[in-house]
From TrEMBL:
Family named by the database record: Belongs to the carbohydrate kinase PfkB family.
Native species: Escherichia coli
PANTHER family found in the cross-reference section: HEXOKINASE FAMILY MEMBER, PSEUDOURIDINE KINASE-RELATED
Alphabetized InterPro entries for the sequence: PfkB_Carbo_kinase, PfkB_dom, Ribokinase-like
CDD domains: KdgK (cd01166)
Molecular functions per Gene Ontology: ATP binding; ribokinase activity
SUPFAM superfamilies found in the cross-reference section: Ribokinase-like
Residue ranges of every copy of the Carbohydrate kinase PfkB domain listed in the record: 31-282
Protein name: Ribokinase sugar kinase
Domain of life: Bacteria
Class in the EC hierarchy, top level: transferase
The EC number(s) this enzyme carries: 2.7.1.15
Keywords tagged on the record: ATP-binding, Kinase, Nucleotide-binding, Transferase
The encoding gene: rbsK_1
Length: 306
């Protein structure tokens, strides 16, 4: 991570890190930190970057049996720099790294036999053998009566590849919980308005749609209800990984038995907490931290109203 705002990639500078990261890893670390048993399927190289992720996830309680170490490949990496506008630029080494080699042969069906929920990050669907692996897992989990959630944080250019678009629609057709950002609602829909797109997802079998709206909060839609929950005002330090923390908190809270409104409140709080910390996975929070944050925020609102 660039240490200064506006630091370019093509000039020498000071970089902070390495940090454990990767959207699926951040998501699953947030799930485990809320006390929900979980695991991850991935590949890393036999190097320090792989070790930092494995050690962090294992220390926090993630089942790492699904992580394959590929001795001939390097662990995926990403560099990020920030602009005064709040925008970010990235350089990714993913497709040709260890995680880009994940295929059906790395899917251990024994790990999946007790899986009741499988979450898919759209950013992982960048190769055909990765898509094949996801299809295998989704099919197994659905046949066992499990739930599929899908966060379509996909690169738009992927949609120009017919086979990749077909794969995304395959996943969406089996999705129970769909979690697009506000700008992604129309990506996999034939409709021209967000309202009609969301209605279409629900008509086609999705049970819950959660639309992430950044610092404007998030909205929930199902066949029976819809509502919006505002976010929490905080001073932003680093937004990287906040959406993954939000998603992990939402899924974990639902697994813990929270109703939709309370789960969305906690997910919003988790995302807000994440942007106050520097480092992608450093933004994950424990339940006590989220509840203390919500309590402090509620107190500040009451004080301001007096």
């Amino acid at each position: 991570m660039a240490s200064k705002i506006g630091q370019p990639f093509d000039q020498p500078g000071i970089w902070n890190g390495p940090y454990p990261s990767g959207a699926p890893a951040i998501f699953i670390d947030q799930v485990t930190r809320l006390g929900v048993p979980c695991g991850i399927i991935s590949c890393v190289g036999n190097d320090g970057f792989g070790d930092i992720n494995i050690h962090r996830l294992a220390a926090d309680g993630v089942d790492i049996r699904g992580i394959s170490v590929l001795p001939l490949e390097a662990t995926g990496s990403a560099f990020v720099t920030y602009h005064n506008s709040g925008d970010r630029d990235f350089i990714f080494n993913i497709k040709n790294a260890a995680c880009g080699k994940l295929s059906v042969q790395h899917v251990d069906e024994n790990i999946l036999k007790d899986c009741t929920h499988f979450h898919i990050m759209g950013s992982s669907l960048f190769s055909f053998h990765m898509v094949d692996a996801v299809k295998k897992v989704v099919t197994i989990v659905k046949e066992n009566g499990g739930v599929i959630s899908f966060d379509p944080n996909i690169r738009k250019e992927m949609l120009d590849i017919p086979e990749m678009r077909d794969a995304l629609h395959f996943v969406l057709e089996l999705t129970d919980i769909y979690m697009p950002s506000e700008g992604e609602v129309l990506l996999l829909s034939p409709h021209s308005t967000p309202e009609r797109a969301i209605a279409g997802f629900l008509e086609e079998g999705v049970k819950e749609v959660i639309v992430k709206r950044g610092n404007q909060g998030a909205s929930y839609y199902s066949a029976n209800e819809q509502f919006h929950v505002e976010s929490y005002p905080v001073e932003e330090v680093d937004p990287t990984g906040a959406g993954d923390c939000f998603g992990g908190a939402w899924i974990a809270c639902r697994q813990l038995g929270f109703d939709a409104h309370r789960a969305l409140q906690y997910a919003n709080a988790c995302g807000a907490l994440a942007v106050t910390r520097r480092g992608p996975m450093e933004g994950t929070s424990r339940l006590a931290e989220i509840e203390a944050f919500i309590q402090r925020h509620d107190m500040s609102i009451r004080e301001a109203a007096q």
